[in-house]
Records
---
Amino acid sequence: TLHPGCNIPPVSTDYLFCVFSPSTVTSCSADVPTTSAPPTTHATSTTTAAPVTNTTSTALPPTTTPTPTLPTPTTGKYSIKTDNSTACLLANFGLRVGFKQGEKYQEMNLEPNGTKVTGSCGVNISELQVASNTMTIMFTFTNDTSKFRLHALNFTAKTSSGVEFSEANTNLSLWEAALGSSYMCNKEQNYTITNLLTLYTFNLQVQPFEVKKDVFSTAHECSLDDTSILIPIIVGAALAGLILIVVIAYVIGRRKTYVGYQTL
């Protein structure tokens, strides 16, 4: 029960304690449950920085500059002579060599002026070596008593970088012709000697055996030069076409001039 001397508003469900003397109220206190304020939450806004990505910009490989087209090489005339100064080997050609050293492809023309020519003639093997300031190339020819061929080629070059390039193939079968004749191919030809070496020839004619009177014998022409088969084919096709036209004209003429008989 609230004492009249305690002017304290009643609190629901709570007890009021008053301490007083019989005449005077000395103190009053309300047992009010203390409502604890929720703890203040200090929200810390943490901004997480995006992970730094070290981007490495890889440069594109430089564009390969095409190798300038070299001019057509000059045709050189080379020969090997016996002790009595009679030629035993004859060779005419313009020569370009392409080779790959590392990742770099290079081409060189053989310049006939100033070249040094050496070699030998034998019954079954003949050799021709041509050396210039930039390259040395050795041709080895063999024969089997009926035909000859280029059997081996050895190439060495002095590159602009100072590194020597050398490549060889000893199992070739090129420039084949009957013994006692020469091999000829006037048009440009290219030969893959190895996967690193390519040979380009121009106005080629060689005869490594049985040279007579210092001149080439009858030439066996390469397929690029040989037009002896093409001409008969063209002539035969023209004649066949002409015969077909005549037959067609004859048939048409017969149909136009034919007059049927009427029954009386």
---
Amino acid sequence: MSKRDTVLRLENVARHYGDLVIVEEINFALRAGETVALLGPSGSGKSSLLHIAGLLETASAGEVHILGQPTSKLSDADRTHIRRNTLGFVYQFHHLLPEFSALGNVALPQLIAGIKKQEAEQEARRLLTLMGLGERVDHQPGQLSGGEQQRTAIARALSNRPDILLADEPTGNLDPKTSDVVFDALLNLVKTEGLAALIATHDQRLANRMDRIFVIRDQRLIEEQKQA
């Protein structure tokens, strides 16, 4: 896939809950290989927009195209297939399984997808090493720091080699120093793997490190220039 190909496109997307308008008239394109920041205060609709882009919520209006394919009329099974094979998700809280090691957590999505255990663990080890956790692969989440847990969750999100990473405040639960370490690792891995990433954050400083910045303001999505 060329760097200029659009991998995710939102076309006139809206999300309403009864009379409550969350977002409307959203038009947006994410290109292969680029990182885009999604800014906005709490309650502005960042999470809803990410959930729509990731086919976790259905838009009230409009269309979501993933790798050029419109998705509004797909079956639940087809939407699940896209989420499992094309999309990776990272949340503010890591949601790691406490009974599994870091290696086991990262390998699990591959095992569910039918990958052989040896191959799944080899890929998990590669991703964890890229995230700076090569010496921690056998540790359970309770033995890892908050930053290490979140880096493990990022590795897990990429274990099925998605085309698109969607991240919702991936460093929002961390102190500033740990946040920088995790974000450095995230950007490095995204670039290494050639992913497109849409990352919601409230941190202007982190947003300035991405290729483009969009802000949700008055239910609309607006592109902004980076701040000096």
---
Amino acid sequence: MIQLPPGAYRPATDRWGSFKRLSASLPEGSLAVVDRRVARLHPTLIPALKARKPRAVVQLTGGEVAKTFESLEQVLAAGLSMPRSGTLLAVGGGTVGDVCTVAAHLLKRGVRLVQVPTTLLAAVDSSLGGKGAVDMTVRGQVVKNPVGVFHYAEEAWLCPELYASLSETQLREGALEAWKMVASLDAELFRAYARRAPSLERMVKDARRLKESVCAKDPYEHEGLRRVLNFGHTFGHVLESVSRFELSHGDAVGLGMLCALDVGRALGITPDDVAWRVEDALHQGPGVLGRERTAELFARAKIKDVVALLAADKKAGSAGELRMVLLTDLGTAVVRDVSADQWQALWPTWTRGERP
């Protein structure tokens, strides 16, 4: 039997239970990286880790400020003495998970990674799929995720007690990412969600199942099949950047989905009734922010700055065209090249907070 190297693609292994119970399986001498706010909110977490005699416990401040080369260096320095058989445990939201994924890939050319998502957003999305990245500043603008790796976690721990301290905003952010996958991948499930919102655990399991079904077919994005997971991300990342990350990733993806529905309608790819139905469901279900928030943020930016941010996006084509995920129906999507003229025609209505 061939032994897979650390970080290679493997089907998702999810373990549900309390952190204390699951942490009993952590090998001694592991490196743990913990969001310091999570540690403060859950005071039994650090003692449970220290009972496993870790090599080090590094605490980072979560949020986009964590995704820097400075944070990455801090984690790498703490793990310098790890053997290649060692384990890096990432306890936090998506930003802590991102930094740890890159660190796990670089330490000893790859160590074992265990993800413990502590936000709903990380649980439904970023802790699954192997991707990790850090941000860079280009011409004074923060560009999300231009430097990154693929390094799959060996397992994920889903600990319901960690989600009990989440705010309504954090729950909305995670729900928007989950509904993104449902709207673009599973029409029947979308209709069920629109009739009755799912429980948190059900939503996490559904979202992880849908994402895993895509990643299994294209684990390293060689085939382009994973692009469907970027529904809402093209303009979502722009909105995050122009807000200087006051706007959370989940809320940005929600607004980015509205932009994608507008682009799809304008190009004749997304039927009107599908666009209206999805937008209405996003308001009624997870509670997407209103279009006035998009208008407020775009009012801060010059269109040339938006063009520059889109050009720096890793999903852009070689000629600068946008490769956007657009719905063709409920549960189905395509990737289409969108010219600057096509999306800029929508700019006046977006800056007025109106639906084109």
